[in-house]
Design goal:
With about 450 residues, the protein is of the alpha/beta class. It has 3 domains: about 35 residues; about 90 residues, Glutaredoxin; about 260 residues, Rossmann fold, CATH 3.40.50.880. It contains 12 helices and 18 strands. The protein has a 7-stranded mixed beta sheet. Helix 3 runs parallel beside helix 6.
Length: about 450
Amino acid sequence: MNSRWIEARQTKYAAYVTVYILVILAIIAVANVLANRYNKSYDSTSNKKYSLSDQTAKIVKGLAQPATITYYDKTSNFSAGKDLLERYTTLSPKIHLDYVDPDKNPQAARAAGISKYGTTIVQIGAKHEEAKSMTESDITGAFIRDLKSSTRTVCFVSGSGEHQIEDTDRNGYSRLKDALTKDDYVVKSISLLEKAEVSADCTVAVVGGPKNDYQQPQVDAIKKYVEAGGRAMIMLDPPLKIGKATADNDALTNVLQGWGVTVDKDLLLDENPVGQLMGVGPQVALVSAYDSHPIVNEMKGTATGFPLARSLTVKNTDKATVQKLFESSDSSFATMKLDSPNVSVTDPNNKKGPLTIAAAGSYNTGKENGEGRFVVVGTSIWATNSFLSFNGNSDLALNAMNWLSSDEDLISIRPKPDEDRKLTMTRAQFAWVRLSSQFLFPIALLLAGISVWWRRR
């Protein structure tokens, strides 16, 4: 009797089902244990919307001591911050998360100076900084402020037709100012005409495309600043004589030549067909390959664009060590005919590419850890409001600023703003989508069902 029960078909099936259930439960249990211990995910979005940027990863993974991120909000709203904040914990075991409800723990909120819900505080050691908003760039900015012990100030020289940091038009530098501010730089304008001296609080001085000649006292102030250990970014446009002419600025270019950078009087044109695919003409030199330097080492695979650029020639001097950062493409050339819009591709006086567009150098001051640094770019338009968002231009500008201010640990690819990925359709396209989804597909399924029924009938 017992053996018949054991050999019965129902008993075997019951045993099989029991084993299957136990195996599935075991797999689920193991998967849950691994998921709790190893928080791994894969971001399949084209712009990596749900992944932290290279800059954030570089900063968090390089932490030398533990850091605490505290999110202050109502308990019912904790989920609003968890999705972003828990990504930080996957980068380093040194990150600890705390969630505090100011209503349930008012003493902790008062001690931290919390005045509104949704506030995030990043604490490293004794320092703590508030994130300006609940975004990756602002939370990572709080990490940067915690890690930096001094204020970094970028001074834009004005008074000779340079791009202005308060100008929101297409030729202004207001977007560059905003990007620097998000990277926790203090940004201000200085005039070397009023006082021919770069102020002592300037970490980096920026010369952004002067239209007029610098007077000798202005040039001497920049020269003295760098050769005493200061840092400068100098962007000079081609001295075009079409329309409103751009000055030659010989006094300033002579100083650069003394540092090993000759700024040639020419205009770069790039016939690279890729430019047409990206919607730019030959006046924009496209760059996708870079030399080995801290400013551009993280730029591999990222294109940048330089409109109305001039070429540079670089060499080392007895006091300065200079290195090119990148060149124009093989299909580029430089014309020295700057007084006419008509340029001949076959002109024998044209210089054939590739040609250097930007260079970085160090000036030996003779003082230990006191070298001067400078970056020279053959155009200033690449950093204007109209072009800063072009592919990797913003990253390049901030990387150059990080290197100039000796913040090489911050050089990387930064968080990208959310893309507007709306699907725009014409009225005819919308009508076709509506017709196919509401009528054609349902009718096709109905006919398929009737066909199957008819065959089986």
